[in-house]
Each structure stands twice: as structure tokens, then as C-alpha cells.
Amino acid sequence: MNATPSRRSILKGAALGAAAIAGSIRVFDFEAAAAPAARGIFGYGVASGDPLGTAVVIWTRATPPCEGRQIATPGSGLGRPIFVRWEVARDEAFRHVVKRGGVLTSAASDHTVKVDVTGLQPYTRYYYRFHAEGETSPVGRTQTAPDDGDRLHALRFGLVSCSNYTGGYFAAYRALGQRTDLDFVLHLGDYFYEYGNGADRSGPPELIGIRDHKPETETLDLTGYRLRHALHKADPDLALAHRQHPFITIFDDHEVADNAWKDGANNHSPDTEGSFLARRKVAYQAYLEWMPFRLPEQRVVPHQGTRFFRGFSFGPLGDLSVLESRQNRTAQVDVPPYTTRGGGFIPIGTPEVDAQLNDPARQMIEPEQMAWLKNSSRGKPWHLIGNQVVLSPLMIPGPLLNLPPTMTLINSDQWDGYRAQQADLVNHIAGVSNNVVVLTGDIHSSWAVEIPSKAGADYTPVGVEFVCPSVTSDGFYELARARLPVGTPAEAVVTATRQITGTLAGRNPWIKYLDGIGHGYALIDVTPDRVQADFHHTPVPTSAQPDPRVVQSVTTAHTTSWQTLAGSRKVSPATGPVGARSDEPA
């Protein structure tokens, strides 16, 4: 028998020891809670989100004290109702409280607390906290949007997506949490992944048993989705980012299941996993419980299902329209044997496939959402569009996927799989008078792209698309490493990765920058004259450290900057990272 104490026993003992030191009588099961619940009622931290000019959402989870042997872990349905008081102040010491109130939370909402605090001042920084049962939460820092009448203010925010917990430590979130110059963080989806710890696990093998998913199996029911959210909220790096900045978020596919569409997903088997719509319903419920997300007014704008798409105003500078492209999308085009369920890399060029891709009845977003998008942000210099999957065309040469050189493929889960609607949106962008910048995630790499009028060398740029890297999810480097012989030096893998991305850029001349190695975030800075994207990445792998994601202390650093000048509809290199803000919130 192995006499070495298990990781579970060590963690559980540490949690119980911390509780004893704190003088608490509450006992928690660290493993079941999937969080260091010894931190008390507010062990899942605080968060804020969806900042408007006069309102912001604040969030926490209030875990009731133990009663007997029952532990109100996320998703358990246990625990009595608990009354939570909240305060919003202009100062961190709460000498100047401007709003306060109380709310009763219970197992019906998984003991989450979400308050839409209204009546605030535009472009103003606030601090908030919660109280319950004699305990006080950590203090959160937030601010309202720079939507202050005709006054022009600075606008700067972080751009992230794709944070697979088993993929590594969340260096990007920690780096964002350490910044003090952001208005908010825009998260474009795949906030977590639905996979378990078995054959479907992805990420470095070095983190098996160290950084595992909770629940251990794929998320299928309400309990599972709630636990997965709780796991992420308990991560110290993500908790720091949430505590320091408001988030604007939208889900992509993995918050439900891989390559989701309106009636199914690549990673859903009805024969063994039941109804997809039932699964999606509970996934959405958990998302709305655990995220500082404000559902927009359902009656004002026509929509299908639940309206998740919404807009944000930044005064005379511009607007942000956040799309939602999973709930009502038509099933992806499949071409067996390349793909059979939920799309992916498919060869194009045959009449049958091209006819499906060009079918005007196929939609990425419902027509009502498209009409809303086209009517958004008129008369302002900049229209920013938060978008889950790549809009610009991406032609993939066959050899990159070990296929014949005469073959070209596209990813049918991207806008390329919905060509009629893709062309409709591109034509709209070409025809508007303001500058359109599409902000995208999903593809686990960093891009600066001129949105082309057509997928040809003689294209005309109509707008710009900036794509942020993944926080941790496998990218081009990890895929190249998996395809090369075991033991290939990291430097050789880096070279192979750059050859791959160079080939892609050469085949798609509208791609002006593409990095497939670094994980991290993009910083977006908006002025009347330009929008700049600063890319911040984890270190380039070396033989000494072939996977920086496994290093808990790893950090990000600025690597390159790209910009689009007002009126140019093109991207160009910027001279360096952004400097100080032109003004600060009150």
C-alpha cells in the first residue's frame, strides 16, 4: 500500500485546518464543493458585470453555514435560505456608501446572489461588498460605462476567451486582475469546458491529479454545470480578475457542449445523454445564476428563444454589440467521413457541399438578431462587435491537415459554414459609414485581419477583425506538438507551428498577423482616431519549459501591437503598447 498521503487528503486537511484556525465550527468537504469552502460564506468571491452608464450587476454566492452533516455545496440543492445585505460605495473603506439593500437567496438559485444596482453615475468607479450571518465578503471594484452624454472618455478593456481549467493555470486572468487601467473585461465564450477528466480531457498531462475538473465527468445536468461554474469562480486568478473588473460575457459552445447548434451538438449523444434541449436549458440556467449577466429587455427587440444578445454604449466614441450565435443556429454542414456531427474541417469545391454552404436558409444568428445588429451604432465613429467564431474567411490548404495539396477546407462551425449570412454581414459592414471592428475568440490563437470583401487576392478591406488568444485551451503549438514524434524539442515544435501559421497567412492574404503559440489576452484601446490591439502572451516554449501553462507562477508579457486607423478599414502595426489613459473614471 502506498503510504504517501493523497492530494485529496492533503487539500481536505488544509481546508479543515484553515477553518479551525479561523475559529469556525463549519466543516466543508473540499472535494465535493470544488472550492476552498473553508473561506466561509463568501468563499466563491465576488464579481460584477454588464456595466451601463448608470447601472452595474454585482454577484456573489452565499454558502449557508453547515447544519448537521448537510453541506450546501454548489448544485446540491441543500442549505436553508439566507439573507444577504449588499453595499456599493465610492471608496474602498465604505465611508461613502451610495447604495445598499438586501436579498434572500436559496437553493433555488444555488445560493447565488445577483443585484442590478441602478441609479449610479456614469464613468465612475465604485466598490461593493456583501454581508451575511456575521461574515463579510471580499471587496469588489467595479465601474460604470463611459456613457456620459456628449462627453468623450477613454475606453480600454481586456479581451479573452477559451479558459479550459485542465489546460493550465490562468495566467491571463491574473495579469488582467493586476491591471488598474481597464474599463471592463470582454469574455467571448468558452468560459469553461464541459469535458470530464477521462478520455475527453484536454490539456497538459502534468496537471492530471493537480488541476482536475469538478465534477469529474462531463457536465450533463444542473448539478454538473453548477459545480463547473463553482470550480472556475474558486480559481484564485479568475477570482482576482472578477474582483477587480466588471465583465461583459457571452457563452459560446462549451458552456453547453462542443459545436452546439439549435437542436444538438458534436459532443452530445441523445441515445445515452438524453434530450439536448433539456441539457441546454439547465446549462443556461447555471450560466445565468453564476455569471454577473443582465438579461436584456425581452420585449423591446424581436428575437427567438431567450434574448442574450445585447448592446453597450460608450457615449460619442462608439458602441459594442455582443452577439449570441449558438441558440438558434442551423446545424453545421457535415461531410462524412471528415465530419459527421456538428461540423468542423470540411473540403469545399464540390457542387453539393458549396450548395449547402451557400443556402440562404442556413443561419448563424436568427434574422431578428441580424436586423438588430444592422440597426446598432449608427452615427458613431466606432462599432465594436463581440463575436464568438471567426467571421473572416479562412481557406485551409489540404497539406496542413495531411490531405492532398489540391484540396481546400474550411471550418463549417465558423461563419464560413454560413456563407449567405456571412456575405450579408460583410456587405453591411462595407456599406456603413462608421468603422467596424469585430472582436473574436474561439480559435485559440492571435490574429489581426482585414475583413475582405471576398475571399480572393484582389479583395477590398471592409473592416477589421481582432482575434484574442485562448487563456489556456490547446492552440496551434499544442496541436503541432501532438503530431510530432514524442521528444521533439520545443524549439522544433515552435518552428513547425510558425510554418503552419505562415502557410495559413500566405493562403489568406487578408491575415496580417497570426500567432499560434502564446496564450493570454488582448488589450483593446479605443480613441476617435484608432482602435489598437495589444497582444499579451505567455512565454515561448523552450526545451527547459515546453509547456508554460503548467507553471503556476507563469505570467504574460506584451508581444506585439496592431491598429486600425479611423477611415482606413485596414490593419497596420502600431509603434508599441498603449500608454496612459487620456482620462480616468471619477
Which descriptors apply to this entry?
alpha+beta; Immunoglobulin-like; Purple Acid Phosphatase, chain A, domain 2; 2 domains; ten-stranded mixed β-sheet; seven-stranded mixed β-sheet; disordered N terminus
CATH class of the largest domain: Alpha Beta
The helix content is: 10-25%
Fraction of residues in β-strands:
15-25%
Radius of gyration: 23 Å
Got a strand count?
25
Q: What's the multimeric state?
A: single chain
Report the CATH topology name of the largest domain: Purple Acid Phosphatase, chain A, domain 2
Question: What shape does the CA trace take?
Answer: globular
Largest sheet: 10 strands, mixed
> Looking at this structure, what is the CATH superfamily of the largest domain?
Alkaline phosphatase D (PhoD)
Strand order of the largest sheet: 5-2-1-11-10-9-22-23-24-25
| Number of individual domains | 2
What low-confidence regions span 5 or more consecutive residues with pLDDT below 50?
Answer: 1-38
Tally of contiguous helical segments: 12
CATH architecture of the largest domain: 4-Layer Sandwich
- Whole-number average pLDDT? 93
Cα separation of the termini: 62 Å
InterPro entries: Metallo-depent_PP-like, PhoD-like_MPP, PhoD-like_sf, PhoD_N, Phospholipid_Metab_Enz, TAT_signal
Domain Phospholipase D N-terminal: 45-144
Region (Disordered): 563-586
Organism: Kibdelosporangium aridum
